[in-house]
Amino acid sequence: MRALVLVxxxxxxxxxxxxxxxxxxxxSVIRAQEQAFIRDDAAAAYSHAAPEIxxxxxxxxxxxxMVRQGYAPVYRHKSFEFGEARAANGHVAQRxxxxxxxxxxxxxxYTLEQQPDGSLKITGCSLLKTGQAA
Length: 134
What we know:
By secondary structure, the chain is α+β, with helices and mostly antiparallel strands. The protein has helices at 2-38, 42-46, 51-56, 60-70, 72-75, and strands at 77-88, 91-100, 105-114, 120-129. Keywords: Signal. This is DUF4864 domain-containing protein.
């Protein structure tokens, strides 16, 4: 019985470690895209977008124009801090707390999905001004 408890504890520990790895990887991808936006590096920012996003925005400059117009707080901000994250079955949802250049607070929810090559790519970003209903 004691051996069974140890095996279960070990397996739970492995699951928690895998979850932490997925979240850390997702945060790294999001941070890399955020830094690419700061540098106005369209190619680097676009490289983190999932194939579904690339179908909608077939060129890096079109993608960047959409981000500038529709996601200004993501594109330019005073602060960008990670919040709660959830990961399961190759998918990660990561909340990000953003303060835009005007000092207004926003909540972004990034979604990422594991690709066939094992990498995580950003599949979406929902943006709400803090205090607004979803």
